[in-house]
Amino acid sequence: MCPGPGMRWRNAGRERSWSLLGRPLRQLPLWTALRSKPAQLPQRLPLRPRSRCRSSRRAELHAGAGAELHGPMRLQALLLGSALCACAPASPVCGDGHTEGSEACDDGNTDDADDCTSLCAPARCGDGLLSPGEACDDGNLNDQDACTSTCQEARCGDGFQRMDVNPDAPGYEACDAPGSETCTSDCRRPQPVWDRIIMGGGDSGAISCAFEMNGSLRCWGNNRYGALGGEVGVDRLAPGPIFERSPAGIVAGGGHLCEWLADGTGACWGLATAGQTGPEPSESCSRTARETCRYARGSTQLSGVESMGAGLTHSCAHHDGHLSCWGSNLHGQLGDPQRRAQLAQPVQVEGLEGLSGLALGGFHTCAIVSDGAVRCWGRNAEGQLGNGSDQDAFVPVPVRNLTAITQLALGERHSCALDEQGQVTCWGYNGYGQVGQGAIPSPRRCRLGQSSRNHCHPRPAEVDGLAPAQAIAAGARHSCALTRGGTVVCWGDNRRGQVGDGTAAGELCIPPDGVTAGCRPSPVLLADLDEIVAIAAGHEGTCAIDVAGTLSCWGRNSWGQLGLGDRQDRHHPVALEVD
After folding, report:
1. Residues of CATH 2.130.10.30 domain(s) within the chain?
2. Which long-range contacts (CB under 8 A, 24 or more apart) does 166-175 make?
3. Average of per-residue pLDDT across 492-496
4. Span 351-538: which CATH code?
5. How far apart are CA 287 and CA 204, in angstroms?
6. Cα Rg for the chain, rounded, in angstroms?
């Protein structure tokens, strides 16, 4: 046993029997059977304790002045005992008030809020300990996270661009020069003022394009067939230019784009297997040799082009008062009864007097003619031509009970129309609720290949519970309307969040491959949006532009078609930011 700090030797009195903390001296390890004449006990005898040693502190044995040690003990024994009891050198202990060993400081405490930390090191920024003068300390000197290298919380204008948060999260910075030409006061890039949005695509990919108010065009999404320029097969996850010049208008098909210029010429490019890019030659696609592509603009060899449309595998142009189409004619979607194959050369569609509008679906085409009547042709297995039949039509047929129509929107297998009064009607395949009748079952079953389980509306039906609309849009299996009050409602397939209600859920759907959940057969109001002036719907996504020119998108994002810089689906509208 070694005496520690504050321990005292005690004299039991006349018996001269020394003890330490109640134990007779003879029982202690320092006892030695040496006898000599009495020795004077030192006033203080320094010893180093064996346990809880401090290399800078010394335990002391105290004896009364003039005390004598008689008998078996003599001074040498005490000195020997001192040596035996001496502690071996120990590791420094931070917080004992003595600076030694690897300690840079020791203020006698383990308080991290002073100048010497609980690690016995001077407080500094980046040590992970919050010290006086520090607003934060995350243990690093990274200027691009929430705590800068000066241990201050990151803020817009601190000279450091924060890089640890996503664009739609609080604290995001696209730049850090607020008030400059290239950085706004809240450290965002000056955003385009969007004017028009176009969406298209199919199961092999989806593309989106939008015009800025200044006429500049940007596109993004699937680049499997090189429609977006750049490296073929590398998808574009955010808006970017595709050519040096911007056209007057553009449309997106299943894997191709078509544009028309102010001079009345038109061109198409991208996937060309069915002739949908027009008469100019194509080549084997670099990514899929069994398909053909056109990577440069290919002229349609038409003049006076006013507008164009694109389906999954066919294209059309309204030019010089006529409508011409090219590409796949498998279901008669080109409107030419004499040719049932694919046509790269545009063929004029007859019987469309007073043509004022057009829209292309998956495998069918519709046009607005005199007095706002509608003619459709092509695939009709699901009733999408609206004439009460389920037979394909290779020439335009009238859609029943439609007049004063101002806009058409066609999905993969359904159709919708908007009239002058703001009433929306839809018809065709309703397996996902895209016709908007409040229930999936419909008055009449229709065939889909060899299946008889699918529900269709072969005649136009008014969409229930919908306020007067100013515009409509149709995706592959969902539909949307922009009301005259500037709100957006959507219905139909919601399995990828394309309805925009914050979920990917809904009622049971009845698609060709079996029953599944995730459909909205009645219009759903998108509470996140107001003052909207334009909408568009693509394969399984949707976008809208508000009065300030902000573009928001939601739904499927597998190919980056929402333009948000990633491939993550969104179940509610998210505003785009362009770096």
Report:
1. 351-538
2. 167/564, 167/565, 167/577, 168/564, 168/574, 168/575, 171/146, 174/577, 174/579
3. 96
4. 2.130.10.30
5. 13
6. 42
